[in-house]
Records
---
Amino acid sequence: MNSYKYIKFLFLFLILILTGCSEDLVEKTYKANIKGVAVKYKTNEPLQNVKITTAPTTETIFTAADGSFIIKDVPIGDYSVKAELEGYIMEIKGANLKDDGQTVSVVFEMKDDNTLNSPPSVPELVTPADNAENQALSLKLSWNCTDPDEDSITYRVILKNNKNNDIKTYKNLTEKSLTLDSLVFGTSYFWQVVASDGINEEVFSKTNKFTTIKIPENRYHFVRKIGDNLGILSSDELGKNFQLTKDNTSAIRPRKSNAAGVIAFIKVVEGNPHIFTVKPDGSELFKVTSIPISGFNINEVDFSWSANGKEILYPSFDKIYRVNKDGSGTQLVYQTTDGSFISECAWSADGTKIALKTNNINGYNVKIYVIDMLGNVLKTILENVTGAAGGLDFSVEGTKILYTRDISGFENSDYRQLNTHIFIYDLTDDTVLDVSTKTKIPAGYIDIDPRFSPNEAEVIFTQTSNDGISQKDVYRLSITDEDSRKLLFSNAWMPDWE
């Protein structure tokens, strides 16, 4: 064999050897896929732009709008797959890729950072103490509560009572206290505080109970200006009082009936004055009249209870009506023959006599007289005088009538009174006692709105300056004692004493 052929043969032999060795040394690479989805914890809402990485490192991708992702052609092996998104806790899942072409699925349920936040402590109710009794009608609730993460806490207070199904909720409180006003006498209240940090579930306190003071047996009621309106106050003799009428409309002329167990008064609704009643604690407001109570001046109009508390007698211009306390049975009792207005009436305890004060449209040309229930005039007490008059009240026996008269005889368009005195007329002998003169009325003052005391040895009334604009005050006096004038209530008028 020549050298050229030998070399060519050797070259081909080496190529064959090398080709065979190459096929034995190179191994095939097996690959798989990792796919998955990222969603919000519990709600399963898809999360977009979640960063997906692996260890060992393969490829970094981000989830689509539907929260899905896929990493293709990942070499076979064990991997940790990590999901990251700002505002959420990082999640890591394992993926075991064993077979060529395999697709392994992973699901990331990602929790937001607040998941690590702790809720507020259970509110601790501090005041009033649980089962506290004789609490005022205005009191302060207080509690303690903390948050381990120092988050801002808002509170809800839930208030129930044992009188009805009312549930009051006071929301969005930021202080650890709440002042309650206008609570009801003799009522048990149940209160609970709910705390929220806006992140975790609300935290509820236990429920505590407190009971308000019992209804006081107040015998005095009077009118006082409260804000922009006139309100009726209920008081004991020492001046401890509470507001009986609680709405935002004025109320005047309180008249309590112990037999009926309610206090009647006048207030205007829908442009007309009507008689209403409430219980001694101010609850259960009830409109009695369907025909308005009316006269020349609503501040000079008065009405009267029957002794048994079942009916109310009241004027409406030139007429007198009687109505049951439940609003039923309205009846016309009397009408003036000359068209004069009836401003006031008083009903004797035995129910047989009515005292009336009539006047013209300006409040003057006053006449005070007594009629029976058939409208017959039994006695004329006052007539043919000038000036203002009023303030009718019967004694228990029905033998005396209390009234007022401006002895100056002054008359003007403002119905100003200059020298008004209290008088007692005795029906048995037609004598008249000037109580104001006997008890030394101060110069420049007038006595108005008189009422007999329950024992009739005293009179309660309003004393004020005759200038018509000064403060009014409620006094009491003994009919027989010259120096018995005693101030009961300041800034008060239209008193009632039962």
Note: The domain at 117-212 is CATH 2.60.40.10 (Immunoglobulin-like).
---
Amino acid sequence: MKSNYILYILICYCLSGCKKDFLEAKPSASIVNPTSLSEFRSLLDNSNILNKTGALPMISSDEYSIVNKADFDAFSVQTLKNAYLWQSDVYSGEVNIPDWNQLYSAIFYANNALDGLEKIERLPSNATQWDDLKGAALFYRAFAYFDLTRNFCPVYIPSQAVNDLGLPLRKSAGIDIIEKRSNLEETFSFIITDLVHSVSLLKDDYQAINKNRPSKASVYALLARIYLYMGKYNDAEENADKCITKYSKLIDYNNVSQTSDIPFSYSTDETIFYSTQVVAYSQTTAYTTVATAIKIDPALIALYQPRDLRLNIFFVKNALGNLNVKRGYVGGGFYAFSGLATDEVLLIKAECAARSGRPDITAALLNNLLVNRYQKGTFTPYSNLSSDAALELVLNERRKELVWRALRWSDLKRLNRDGSNIKLERNLGGTTYTLAPNSTKYVFPIPDDEIALSGIQQNVR
């Protein structure tokens, strides 16, 4: 019996964004067999599939709250409601969960490209294009697998990774083989191997327009994000440095509108690789400036200092006087930016420097970032920090700078692994719900229909 996401993949492939003549020319089963490099480029340019991450982490994180029980009861998607309250049964029978299905669709696309490219001879005349396509396919596969890993697998602990459950690792586009779950060490090894291979193939240029396409800087930024999550801080900093060498431009927020609901463009200079959250759960995870059912966490807002431009650029008051979030690095896009950007890379390096006892480096990096975030002439640079103070500062800056990017959930997982002991609470209708540090509920269950069709092992929650 085939896994349920296979049918979803094929339907999406037939209906979505490759070139029209390509789709019309291959209307049947052969549609999954591009034959030219241009067709593979069309396949890999389908950002509706390949440039997506899950949204369950946003629903479950502590960046916002639902204002009252009446608003909560009015939400139509049970998965949203269960994830918000950290229920053991997240899906309540709902199927076709995009956080799982769409990410495996991306993996299918990448595998299809990798399989097909092997049938096209690499010649001196096409070598640059051939290499770039293969490097991109490897990157997209790794990007999707990491998002699945941080959502559907336990946080990485070196001594436990060979025993913890990882993902079913599909390494080719064949749809007839059911892959059982690998262990977590194997999953991370596969992801990192893909990225190391990818960076040797991709063009050495920054995608100023086609930000949906990866470059070498994208690979290094993703590796830095992955190694930070794993707690491998030396490796995280090394890859952050490599990324910064390739691209490190920051936006001066003094030149960004504080009144517009769309303060940034799609092609904003800080974006290294563009992705957004899956099109789902719009009542909580989409950008909105008028939703009265949700509000940004006041404790998060309290972290912003006077003359910090991010407060007005990121947030706006709704009709109830609560704060909603404006659009981030997506231009007019509706769903939250979850891609890779230079601000995140600088913060990764800053955190790694603090953890390795180099607070002067952390201070210099924070100063470089924050002078571009505060009203001109009002930011007082940091100096003479202790390592502990530097780490506290950089973790607070991650919360303020990377808000609404679906990074907070994985940060909570890794910080609690390292002893931060962060407990989450929600109050709704007179009832208090709590999420303990290192709870098994930080790992989302595999969707019920996937378990029924493939028989892979379920997470304990």
Note: The chain is about 45% helix and 10% strand.
---
Amino acid sequence: MGKLDGKVAVITGGSTGLALAGAKLFVDEGAHVFITGRRQDALDDAVRHIGSNVTAVQGDAADLDDLDRLYDTVRQDKGSIDVLWASAGIGEQAMLGEITEEQFDNTFSLNARGTLFTVQKALPLFNDGGSIIMTGSNASLRGFPGWSVYAGSKAVQQAWARVWVAELKDRRIRVNVLTPGQVATAKQQELFDEETKRQFESLIPRGEMGSPDEIATTALFLASDDSSYVNGIELVADGGTTVM
């Protein structure tokens, strides 16, 4: 018996990286998963990787029309949602003094505004007793030079989780933030050169990056009844980086 048998999950940004690993694990644990992503080719690859019980809906989580189309698909296909993992996000390094309006607007449009409306637009479909997860970042917990815009766009989620727990208590919908540290993904390979990766690894007590599968198992905990008494927290999965 799987931990998510019969559940319906929605994962934004689920075509790559840690969210893709989570989508695969959720399906393995019995859920039907809807994933989104901006690129159709990446979504097609993700569906092949996951194998079954997955529906891909191409779209941008920063685009409210795309979110409406996502939830219309969920409504027509399954009728309701038990788990939402709002994981779509972007990050770009820029030092104070070099930050552009475009960088700020693009980052906050997806990471902050997009996350809020991903959650809000899901609520009419949400079953009572469900679980909402937002992907944070330990960049919002430490002072990594060049990442202030990204850190700020992620820090809002911690405040939202606390407020939304109070607003959703009568429906027993839990809201938590899953905050990864450095995770070895294709996107990270694109953003970081070898020297930067070594610098980040030096901050992790075990000396190596996390894996998408390690974040996926943490997300499964928050999605399932294993975390039925966990509500309103920020669960940091960064190998101890933020306590060093």
Note: Helices lie at 17-28, 40-50, 64-77, 101-122, 148-167, 186-191, 194-201, 212-223.
